Amino acid sequence: MQIVANAESVQLQAKLFRGFGDSARLGILQALKNGPLNVTEIVAITGMSQSNTSNHLRCLRECGLVAAEQQGKYALYRLSDDRVGDLLATAESLLSDVARGIYECTRYNLPRDISQEQV
After folding, report:
1. Per-residue pLDDT at 119
2. What pTM did the predictor assign?
3. What is the C-alpha to C-alpha distance for residues 28 and 79, in angstroms, rounded to an integer?
């Protein structure tokens, strides 16, 4: 039974990391690492369109990585948990040590159509 529980845990962790695995969503999370922002500010920082940003924010909210708070006619978005920021910082630290291997890795460079089927 432990093997099944472990497999379920691994699947759930993989789903969590999918939120971090998309460059658009990761850009939003990185922007929010410094504090709450509205959609217009996130668009300015990430360079994405407003509709694309809103779609990714909705995904991040549904997955529990981002929270929103209404402030007048605007919503302010923030990381839902300090550990999300901690994980981003840990990833940056790890990347500084293994950047060359990640850069040269060809196994993660899937064709666009294949990677989209898995999302």
Report:
1. 39
2. 0.79
3. 10
DSSP state of 57: H
Tokens of 32: 């929010």
CATH architecture of 2-117: Orthogonal Bundle (1.10)
| Structure tokens that stand for 63 in this block | 């997955």
Tell me the average pLDDT of the chain.
Answer: 87
Whether the CB-CB separation of 54 and 43 falls below 8 Å is answered with: no
Residue 56: is its pLDDT beyond 60? yes
Cα separation, 77 vs 70, whole angstroms: 9
What H or E segment, with its residue span, contains residue 68?
Answer: strand 66-71
Report yes or no: 33 and 81 within 8 Å, Cβ to Cβ: no
Q: How far is CA 66 from CA 10, 18, 48, in A?
A: 22, 14, 18
Q: Cβ(42)–Cβ(53) under 8 Å?
A: yes
Q: Which amino acid is at 88?
A: L
Q: Are 108 and 118 in contact (CB under 8 A)?
A: no
b/e code 20-31 from CB counts within 10 Å (16+ = b): bebebbbbbbeb
